[in-house]
Design a protein that fits this description.
With about 325 residues, the protein is mainly beta. The protein has one domain: Glycosyl hydrolase domain, family 43 (Tachylectin-2, Chain A, 5 Propeller). Helices cover about 0% and strands about 50% of the residues. The protein is built from 1 helix and 20 strands. The strands form 5 sheets. It has a 4-stranded antiparallel sheet with strand order 1-20-19-18. Strands 2-3-4-5 form a 4-stranded antiparallel sheet, with no helix packed on it. A hairpin with a 5-residue loop joins β15 and β16. The longest helix has 4 residues. The radius of gyration is 18 Å and the shape is globular.
């Protein structure tokens, strides 16, 4: 079966469906439904996982069950409490735990996530954690209070936004890796981060190895290439990712690869900003969803999904 990403770069979205999920207003979910991605529950129902934020801007895992038909989306049950809470004081995720991807394994449903800490010389630091669910993705428990993939000699600054695929008995990960912090220029107060997408591999999904190869090298005036989502196709791999240049906000792009290591980028955005207020300034952090014969894209809008997450239908030939 072809992936939901398929040949989506051959055509623009056919219909924007607006906001699908919004913040609940709970103590832990005052704003944002960031980094939405789908877990199949049944033929007609999915659980969309995301990161909500509290009044102190700390992210936690949450989810919303939705169904989709020709009339659009119908919302169902949602997480009343965080599916994944922030870590203990002093750990790598004590300032935020942001879900990123799910993988089935013999030990349970594995959730890979970005753990955030606040910095001193730089504004923030993030590394990759893993948690497991034994209740079909309703709640998750950390495998370790330490990151399963942290800073190393090939990724000395930061790493996060993991997207993991299981291929046979092995695991592959595409993730964001920091390449540089640039000191603030005159009149600025914060250093600027540079990060883009790399690849890692593992025999067990817990111990990871990487190297110095970039999957998506910077182009033009880019400084942030983020949130890789990769699916296998009949001819290799397809990736959706978000990228921005200095003076611009994120747009969603796509790339293709025969081996998952060397990628050919498409020049034009796969998804550009829309006319509605919530997505007028930015679109980012997309993920695929297939419902019946319809291929969809989940994504965030302004301010990294502060208003929630939306969806668009993709061309029929994207299946």
């Amino acid at each position: 079966m072809k992936s939901a990403i398929g040949n989506a770069d051959h055509g623009r979205p056919t219909r924007r469906l607006g906001l699908v999920g919004r913040p609940s207003g709970a103590w832990w979910h005052q704003t944002h439904c960031q980094n939405p991605f789908a877990q199949r529950l049944s033929a007609g129902s999915v659980r969309v996982h995301f990161a909500g934020r509290d009044e102190r801007n700390r992210s936690r895992g949450g989810w919303l069950n939705v169904e989709y038909n020709s009339s659009g989306f119908t919302s169902g049950e949602r997480a009343a409490e965080p599916s994944l809470d922030i870590g203990r004081l002093g750990t790598f995720d004590d300032s935020g735990a942001m879900p990123s991807s799910l993988v089935e394994s013999p030990s349970g449903l594995l959730l890979y996530y970005t753990g955030w800490t606040l910095g001193g010389t730089v504004p923030f630091q993030f590394e990759i954690g893993c948690a497991v669910s034994h209740d079909a993705g309703r709640t998750f428990e950390r495998i370790s209070e330490a990151p399963v993939f942290g800073r190393n000699r090939f990724d000395p600054l930061l790493l996060g936004a993991p997207w993991v695929l299981k291929e046979g008995s092995d695991f592959r990960m595409w993730y964001v890796s920091g390449t540089e912090w640039v000191p603030p220029a005159a009149g600025e107060t914060r250093p600027t981060h540079f990060y883009t997408i790399k690849h890692a591999w593992s025999a067990d999904g817990i111990r990871w190895e990487s190297d110095d190869q970039l999957c998506i090298p910077f182009r033009d005036d880019e400084y942030a290439v983020a949130r890789p989502v990769v699916q296998r196709t009949a001819v290799g791999f397809e990736m959706w990712y978000s990228a921005r240049r200095h003076g611009e906000t994120y747009r969603v792009y796509s790339a293709r690869s025969a081996d998952g290591l060397t990628w050919i980028r498409n020049n034009e955005p796969l998804l550009a900003t829309g006319v509605l207020e919530w997505e007028r300034e930015m679109v980012c952090y997309s993920a695929p969803l297939t419902q019946g014969n319809t291929s969809l894209m989940l994504y965030n809008g302004n301010d990294y999904g502060k208003a929630g997450f939306g969806a668009v239908e993709l061309p029929a030939d994207s299946l």
